[in-house]
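Technical annex, item 7. During the second reporting period the consortium partners agreed on a shared format for inverse folding records so that results from different sites could be compared directly. Each record opens with the tokenized structure and is followed by the designed sequence. A conforming record, contributed by the partner at site C, is shown below for reference.
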């Protein structure tokens, strides 16, 4: 295996700027660097609780127009969702809320697309998929957003609970800026209805038309990259990153190549291995 496939961190952009390596003398400094950022996040979360949260429980299937997304063919305004002030991700039960945020699967968002598909769609050719050189690696933007939100949530909870920070401040700022840019790019013009209360809220009980997330999940699952983000504090520091890409699904053509590379037999099923959770360290 060519060593050029072994070092890419993939989900940790610009590692020289956003290194998460824990050093004995910088824990206090890291926490101080994040104080301002996390206090701002705290204020933002309070605002979000006031203005309402989107409940992704399907209310009904609306009449979709003919517009479809360029890469996956998702229909615009296909599914209708209800905005609400309470959902599992804002639960007052911290244990349940932590579990809900931790359960968000960002790994499937790193996909291996055939280079022919990328060429036909006008997508720049990405890093070569190590188990099939006719495919390139891409991170779907929606999953990058979820990756960032999980990092921000984890950092905020660590700050609130007085635990050492898992991420450098630069990584969190990067994530905040990427989410900012996504908001500007999408330019969502949905009018949020205000309530006539003494303390008004917006969008409560309002219906919003959305794309079908389940359809996106089905599409990305058809192009698996065998990737798991894992514990960045450990996996980012390994000399080879290929161990992060050993989790090929059973029946995939790449699984046999993975078994051969790691010297394992036919009974080895890496995808069945327990997934790391940041909650295990709490």
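Designed sequence (site C submission):
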């Amino acid at each position: 295996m060519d060593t050029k496939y072994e070092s890419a961190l993939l989900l940790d952009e610009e590692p020289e700027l956003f290194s998460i390596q824990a050093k004995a003398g910088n824990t206090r400094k890291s926490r101080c660097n994040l104080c301002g950022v996390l206090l701002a996040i705290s204020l933002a979360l309070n605002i979000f609780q006031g203005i309402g949260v989107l409940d992704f429980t399907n209310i009904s299937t609306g009449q979709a127009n003919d517009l479809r997304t360029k890469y996956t063919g998702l229909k615009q305004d296909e599914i209708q969702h209800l905005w609400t002030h309470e959902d599992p991700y804002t639960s007052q039960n911290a244990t349940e809320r932590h579990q809900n945020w931790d359960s968000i699967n960002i790994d499937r968002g790193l996909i291996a697309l055939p280079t022919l598909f990328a060429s036909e769609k006008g997508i720049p050719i990405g890093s070569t998929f190590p188990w099939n050189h006719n495919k390139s690696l891409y991170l779907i933007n929606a999953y990058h957003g979820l990756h960032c939100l999980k990092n921000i949530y984890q950092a905020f909870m660590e700050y609130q609970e007085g635990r050492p920070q898992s991420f450098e401040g630069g990584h969190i700022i990067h994530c905040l800026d990427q989410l900012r840019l996504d908001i500007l790019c999408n330019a969502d013009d949905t009018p949020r209805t205000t309530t006539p209360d003494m303390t008004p809220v917006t969008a409560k009980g309002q219906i919003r038309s959305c794309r079908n997330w389940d359809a996106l999940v089905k599409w990305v699952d058809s192009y698996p990259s065998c990737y798991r983000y894992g514990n960045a504090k450990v996996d980012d520091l390994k000399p080879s990153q290929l161990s992060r890409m050993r989790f090929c699904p059973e029946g995939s053509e790449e699984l046999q190549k993975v078994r051969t590379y790691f010297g394992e037999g036919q009974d080895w099923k890496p995808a069945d291995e327990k997934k790391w959770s940041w909650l295990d360290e709490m």
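The two ends are 37 Å apart (CA to CA). The CA atoms of residues 48 and 214 lie 24 Å apart. All partners now use this format for quarterly exchanges.
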